[in-house]
Design a protein that fits this description.
Elements (H helix, E strand, L loop, with lengths): L1 E7 L3 H11 L4 E8 L6 H14 L7 E3 L13 H4 L21 H11 L5 E4 L4 H9 L9 E5 L19 H5 L1 H8 L5 E4 L1 H4 L3 E2 L1 H10 L2 H19 L5 E2 L3 H8 L4 E10 L10 E4 L5 E7 L1 H12 L1
Parallel strand pairs: 1-2, 1-4, 2-3, 4-5, 5-6, 6-11
Antiparallel strand pairs: 7-8, 9-10, 9-11
Helix pairs in contact: 1-10, 1-11, 4-5, 5-7, 9-10
Bound molecules: beta-D-ribofuranose and calcium ion (CA).
Length: 305
């Protein structure tokens, strides 16, 4: 199986991304590194520990990472993910503890021990990976692949961002870190909102998950129903399964269409902060452009069931 690290801010969809990876034999989760993001670092770390305990995988190490972005002030999303980060779900407190080693140092250590071997799915703000690159130049190039959920590339789209009119949450929450990652030369695959919005979350789908009856499927359905409750209050009728697309691509690449692209992120301190744009020039990512929505859901149902 493919050795995998998850860099995440759980987060309802981060949590489902983790559950999908744990349920899949093609990958082996070597560790979970947490970041500030949907909620504060203490909560994202707590959630990672509790999710692993719930799945009876306390053997998987959790490393706490960056508590704040590189330059901008922290930005959280409790209006989307709930105050605790998992919608309205409250998991039992896990017994195990976070590792003493900082996520950024643990990441550098693991990549240097196994150059070219590790894959990372990064589903939160990219602060940990940017810090790693700055501490240990070239470390991101030594990943087998870096699969990122972030940004939004839709030329002429009526609604580009989800946190501002122009920017996607992970890109906006640490745009400078995204810039470091995009310039790192890593083998990056980018899943922006342009892709993840194709994989919609509906009440019919959460009901089908509930009907599967397994702990992982029921938990996922409960978290997604809480997420739908929250976004409906904000007049967003359709939710999207953002972060699990990264792991789904590792499992079933044929469910997605990718194309080489050059993507850059705006750092101007104005209303476009964190906006991602496609530019001419040497490609720096494989950009995911099309998803087989039913295929991704079928995969999730199969694995969580
Ligand atoms: C991204 O932002 C977060 O709220 C989600 O977990 C996902 O990673 C979508 O823009
Ligand atoms: Ca996330």
């Amino acid at each position: 199986p493919l050795p995998l690290l998850l860099d995440c801010d759980p987060g309802v969809d981060d949590a489902i991304c983790l559950l999908l990876a744990l349920a899949s034999q093609e990958v082996t989760v070597r560790g979970v590194q947490t970041t500030h993001g949907n909620v504060a670092l203490t909560s994202t770390t707590r959630n990672a520990l509790d999710l692993l305990a719930f799945m009876e995988r306390p053997d998987i190490p959790v490393y706490a990472g960056a508590a704040a972005p590189l330059i901008r002030a922290p930005l959280y999303a409790p209006d989307i993910h709930g105050a605790g980060g998992l919608g309205t779900v409250q998991l039992p407190l896990a017994g195990q503890n976070v590792k003493a080693e900082h996520a950024v140092l643990a990441f550098i250590r693991q990549v240097r021990e196994q150059p070219g071997q590790l894959t990372v799915c990064a589903t939160g703000p990219l602060t940990n990976l940017a810090l790693a690159e700055r501490l240990s130049h070239g470390v991101l190039r030594e990943l087998r692949a870096l699969v990122v959920m972030g940004g939004s590339i839709e030329a002429g789209a009526p609604k580009l961002g989800n946190v501002t009119a122009h920017a996607e949450f992970n890109a906006h929450a640490d745009p400078h870190a995204l810039r470091v990652v995009l310039e790192s030369g890593a083998n990056t695959v980018l899943f922006g909102l342009n892709l993840t919005r194709q994989v919609r979350v509906t009440r019919e789908r959460t009901a089908a998950l509930t009907a599967l009856g397994t702990p992982a499927a029921s938990l996922s359905a409960d978290m997604l129903n809480g997420y739908l409750d929250l976004i409906e209050q904000r007049d967003q009728r359709v939710g999207a399964l953002h972060d699990p697309c990264t792991v789904a691509w590792l499992l079933r690449p044929e469910l997605f269409e990718l194309e080489p692209a050059r993507v850059q992120v705006r750092l101007n301190e104005d209303e476009q902060l964190g906006m991602t744009v496609r530019e001419d020039g040497e490609p720096n990512v494989q950009l995911a452009v099309k998803a087989d929505e039913d295929g991704v859901w079928a995969l999730l149902m199969e694995r969580l069931g």
